[in-house]
């Protein structure tokens, strides 16, 4: 692999940063009318800050030196009014800019969430949920901290700085040039520290993403960690990631800690220069005491916005590192998109065909190899085979969660790639082994796929799923609040509610993936009865390791290593005395040893 030269790498980095800034500026487009108002308020606030030292210095030479107390009081009253206007403008600019930034950041979060929801399943196969959460929460929070609270102050200080420079040069060109000698040094120092800070803050954003991913994973698997005595190991692994994040932040803080004293030193240096040269001019009569006093006040004001701008600049490096991660997610290609001429899927009859389908989660490793099958409308198709044989992959291709690598999948003789995903999936119901319930009421979970469903329709679906009596026995019936992942319901109760969810959408094609696994025998009977009712007059694809659940299937497909090795009814496959017959005998305990590897 060719490593780019330092010059090329620097150019690529600069290009990436400019691209990030341009992308971020695009979020200001909806606020074109509000931005001029905010800028006007910022200019007013900056102008009021810049005129103060001039009038104070002028008063020394023309009012105080001449004993004009009346003029001095009038000047002070005028300055008080100017400062009052400035304070009002600054308050207005903070409110206006804050209003813009908070809406901008809310839109950024919305875009991230919408992107995550629209990405194909293949993206989540290679991504960690915790890292995605970190981009949505931590990275946006970093942008908020850098821009949401301080951008108004930053802009105000920038305009104040320009006003101060103009005033200093207008009052005395020589002193103005002396005062600005430190500016090139400050620019150089800021750029140097910014490059260091940017690299370190980029590491902090990555490490907090890794830490969030680890945290999300370990919190979700506390039970398994305790069961397998992995608690100490998990703590050790988290400690290593936590230490990496700590070290990255310490290094970033160390850079910031060295930067601010450097700016203070340059500030002191410039003040000493103005005092020395200004004193000389005052002694020789080339400048008045009032001018020198005004310059000393301007120098103090001059470096205060520079300090704030420099501090903001280093803080912004963390924000830009977060924005890079955010935009890299937003730029993630949508691998599964509707074709330009995609049509709405008509109401399904339920005929499903796989025609020489090949598929691989990666280009160099096929999971399915020339799979062909034909399901007539209303048929029940059972898929059996070893874990990893390709059963789940087959059913994932029907609702087009993935696109085939070769061949095609058709429903009612229409290639699933030629219809909109929404219209296709609207007519397909899925009941998984571990269906996820959400925080909310029982009714809301049943109506997950049909949020507008009436209470009568929800209860009818629950009755069909054999779960109505259980729900009505709960403290608040259908309005009972469930916790995360459906707590405190049992696995079987969650499964019955998932079946009710599928009943409610009335799908023409039904997919059952290990729907009766991990539940007790009594609940299994309820689930089996609910499934039997759900299967009526629907094309269904059933994956089950318990072969007793697929005896009534119209077709049984035996999958091995991504291929259909046997196909037929239960009776036909038993008569063949092949792979399926041996597997069935093994499960029923009719043979003492298996003649196949599953």
Describe the structure.
The strands form three sheets. The chain has a six-stranded mixed β-sheet with strand order 6-9-10-3-11-12, sandwiched between helices. Strands 2-1-4-5 form a four-stranded antiparallel β-sheet, with helices on one face. Strands 7-8 form a two-stranded antiparallel ribbon. It has two domains: 30-330, ABC transporter transmembrane region fold (Up-down Bundle); 341-427 and 542-598, P-loop containing nucleotide triphosphate hydrolases (Rossmann fold, 3-Layer(aba) Sandwich). α3 runs antiparallel to α6. With 598 residues, the chain is an alpha/beta fold. It is built from 20 helices and twelve strands.
Topology at a glance:
Blueprint: H1 6-26, H2 34-64, H3 69-118, H4 121-125, H5 129-148, H6 151-171, H7 173-179, H8 182-219, H9 222-227, H10 231-284, H11 289-330, E1 352-359, E2 368-375, E3 380-385, H12 391-397, E4 406-411, E5 414-415, H13 421-425, E6 428-431, E7 440-441, H14 442-446, H15 455-464, H16 468-473, E8 481-482, H17 491-505, E9 509-513, H18 521-535, E10 539-543, E11 555-560, E12 563-568, H19 570-576, H20 579-587
Parallel strand pairs: 3-10, 3-11, 6-9, 9-10
Antiparallel strand pairs: 1-2, 1-4, 4-5, 7-8, 11-12
């Amino acid at each position: 692999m060719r490593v780019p030269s330092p010059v090329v790498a620097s150019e690529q980095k600069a290009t990436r940063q400019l691209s990030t800034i341009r992308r971020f500026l695009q979020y200001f487009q909806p606020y074109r009318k509000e931005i001029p108002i905010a800028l006007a308020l910022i200019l007013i606030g900056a102008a009021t800050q810049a005129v103060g030292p001039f009038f104070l210095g002028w008063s020394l030479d023309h009012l105080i030196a001449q004993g004009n107390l009346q003029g001095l009081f009038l000047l002070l009253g005028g300055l008080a009014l100017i400062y009052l206007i400035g304070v009002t403008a600054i308050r207005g600019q903070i409110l206006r800019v804050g209003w813009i930034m908070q809406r901008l950041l809310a839109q950024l979060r919305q875009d991230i969430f919408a992107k995550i929801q629209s990405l194909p399943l293949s993206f989540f196969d290679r991504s960690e949920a915790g890292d995605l959460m970190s981009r949505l929460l931590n990275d946006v929070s970093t942008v908020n901290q850098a821009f949401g609270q301080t951008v108004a102050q930053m802009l105000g200080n920038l305009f104040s700085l320009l006003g101060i420079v103009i005033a200093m040069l207008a009052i005395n060109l020589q002193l103005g040039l002396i005062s600005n000698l430190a500016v090139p040094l400050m620019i150089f120092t800021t750029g140097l520290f910014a490059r260091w800070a940017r690299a370190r803050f980029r590491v902090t954003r990555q490490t907090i993403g890794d830490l969030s991913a680890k945290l999300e994973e370990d919190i979700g698997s506390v039970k398994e960690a305790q069961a397998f005595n992995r608690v100490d190991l998990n703590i050790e692994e988290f400690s290593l990631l936590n230490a990496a994040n700590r070290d990255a932040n310490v290094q970033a803080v160390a850079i910031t800690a060295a930067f601010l004293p450097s700016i203070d030193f340059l500030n002191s240096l410039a003040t000493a220069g103005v005092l020395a040269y200004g004193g000389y001019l005052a002694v020789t009569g080339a400048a008045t005491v009032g001018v020198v006093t005004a310059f000393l006040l301007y120098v103090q004001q001059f470096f205060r916005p520079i300090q704030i701008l420099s501090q903001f600049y280093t803080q912004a490096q963390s924000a830009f590192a977060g924005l890079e991660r955010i935009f890299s997610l937003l730029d993630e290609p949508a691998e599964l998109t509707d074709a330009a001429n995609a049509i709405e899927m008509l109401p399904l009859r339920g005929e499903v065909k796989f025609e020489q389908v090949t598929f691989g989660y990666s280009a160099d490793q096929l999971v399915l190899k020339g799979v062909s099958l034909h399901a007539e409308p209303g048929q029940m198709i059972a898929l059996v085979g070893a874990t990893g044989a390709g059963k789940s992959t087959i059913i994932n291709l029907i609702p087009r969660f993935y696109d085939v690598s070769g061949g095609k999948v058709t429903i009612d003789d229409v290639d699933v790639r030629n219809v909109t995903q929404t219209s296709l999936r609207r007519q397909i119901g899925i009941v998984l082994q571990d269906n996820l319930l959400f925080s909310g009421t029982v009714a809301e979970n049943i109506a997950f796929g049909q949020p507008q469903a009436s209470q009568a329709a929800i209860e009818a679906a629950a009755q069909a799923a054999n779960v109505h009596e259980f729900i009505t026995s709960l403290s608040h019936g259908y309005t009972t609040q469930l916790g995360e992942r459906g707590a405190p319901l049992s696995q079987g109760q969650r499964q019955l509610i998932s079946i009710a969810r599928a009943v409610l959408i009335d799908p023409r094609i039904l997919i059952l993936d290990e729907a009766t696994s991990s539940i007790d025998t009594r609940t299994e009977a309820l689930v089996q009865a609910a499934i039997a009712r759900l299967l009526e007059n629907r094309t269904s694809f059933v994956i089950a390791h318990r072969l007793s659940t697929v005896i009534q299937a119209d077709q049984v497909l035996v999958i091995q290593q991504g291929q259909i090795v046997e196909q037929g009814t239960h009776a036909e496959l038993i008569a063949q005395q092949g792979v399926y017959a041996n597997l069935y005998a093994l499960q029923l305990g009719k043979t003492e040893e298996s003649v196949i590897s599953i």
